[in-house]
Amino acid sequence: MPQSKDLLMLFDSASLWYRAYYGMPDTLLGANGKPVNAIKGFLDMSARLIAKYQPSQVIFCLDGDWRPSWRVELFAGYKTNRLAEDGTEEAEPDLLTDQIPVILDVLEAIGFPVVGLDDFEADDVIASYCRQSKSPVRIVTGDRDLFQLVDDALDKKIVYLAKGISNHDLVDEKYISERFEIPASRYGLFASIRGDASDGLPGIKGIGEKGAAVLAREFENMAQVIKSAQSDEQIPLKLRSKVLQDIEYANIAERLTACRTDLVLPKNLGPMPSQISDLKKLEIIKQEYSLNTNIERILSVVKPS
Fold first, then answer.
1. Three-state SS for 254?
2. 3-class state of residue 11 by DSSP
3. E strands along 161-199, which residues?
4. Which one, of 101, 127, 113, 116, lies nearest residue 55 by Cα?
5. Are 62 and 114 a contacting pair, CB within 8 Å?
6. Which residues, listed in sequence order, are joined to residue 157 by a DSSP beta bridge?
């Protein structure tokens, strides 16, 4: 398959190493006796998708802060469900923690750009690259949050790993409109009304996915929803009362769920790696973690010298 001209592929790294960790048996060990299931799954998944879509550029995006201060100021409960017992950091499986630095070391040793920004999540980094790029974009993620970036006219689509690490859906406007029964451009509004338990976001109390779809079909943004709830009977009475009862949350919901698209991020990162950045380091990691096959697989699709 020929390389796709100017196709930018953005990887939602943390989402994907979680998927890899849960998608591969944690009995997989390296030569050093340490778990490598997330590392192997992440590298193989990345290689497979790069081979399929043949992007001209790849960026692996990170959380500079998985719980940004400005989102917490808007809503104190943001992601509190994910806090560790001491309340200071994100809880994660013990066997995953030590694998994350190895994944990042492999990516950097190969020469892939790895980008995060202080006080912003990977979603914001991805959204900013996506919106600011004039190229077609494929966003690789296991989360639905980024569906708000889909735009068929600009060829921005989501490679959605909803079915483990081996299969994916290519999410375009038709996929969103058929699955959620809403205009694709209003997915952000729909998500802000529905909420997201995985992020500790309740949504507007008492309005689930069906009610959120009703409102997203009728209105373009939350300001219109609130105005209608306060001034007319265009909204069904049951939904109208729920919006008014939770008006404080409704006023901040879109800002919480909307990805930032205005970040100033590194540009001119170059095309796919043309040569291995740190061959010595890569060889050490291969041997220590028994990753020869996995690293060779991703090198074979990138083809650096």
1. helix
2. strand
3. 169-171
4. 113
5. yes
6. 138
Describe the chain by its helix, strand, coil percentages, rounded to 5.
50, 10, 40
CA dihedral for 124, 130, 131, 132, sign (positive or negative): positive
CATH number of the domain at 184-257, please? 1.10.150.20
Cα–Cα distance measured from residue 140 to residue 154, given in angstroms and rounded to the nearest whole number: 17
The model scores a pTM over 0.90: yes
List the structure tokens of 128: 């900013």
Beta strands in 44-103 (DSSP E): 57-61
CA 90 to chain centre: 16
Q: Which residues contact 130 (CB under 8 A, 6 or more apart)?
A: 8, 10, 137, 139, 149, 156, 261
Conformation bin of residue 258: beta by default, left when phi > 0, alpha when psi is -120 to 50: beta
Residue extents of the structural domains in the chain: 8-180+260-302, 184-257
Q: Tell me: the pLDDT tens digits for 13-56?
A: 999 999 999 999 989 999 999 999 999 999 999 999 999 999 99
User: Cβ(272)–Cβ(302) under 8 Å?
Assistant: yes
Class of domain 8-180+260-302 (CATH, top level): alpha beta
